[in-house]
């Protein structure tokens, strides 16, 4: 077995560990936070502009 074979196996092990970490983290986040919170987005809102934030709140209340 040469160095490239060992590096290849090490890369597969690292990839498996990363996959396991991603799955465990996704489960922890899913159990910790409500789905509505995870799906909400406030992108594009300027917290310093209260008119924009208020109009967004009115739009969301009419959408429900």
Provide structural commentary.
With 64 residues, the protein is mostly helical. The protein has one domain (1-61). Helix content is 77%, strand content 0%. It is built from 3 helices and no strands. It has helices spanning 3-32, 35-39, 50-63. The longest helix has 30 residues, at 3-32.
Break the fold down into its secondary structure elements and pairings:
Elements: H1 3-32, H2 35-39, H3 50-63
Brief write-up:
The chain has 64 residues and is mainly alpha-helical.
Order of helices and strands: HHH
How many β-strand stretches?
A: 0
Helix content: over 70%
Oligomer: single chain
Runs with pLDDT <50, length 5+?
A: none
Give the count of structural domains. Answer: 1
Radius of gyration: 22 Å
Helix segment tally: 3
The end-to-end span amounts to 63 Å
The main pleated sheet reads as:
none
Shape: elongated
Give the overall average pLDDT: 80
Name the beta content range: under 5%
Q: What structural class do the secondary elements suggest? A: mainly alpha
Brief descriptors of the model:
64 residues; mainly alpha; elongated
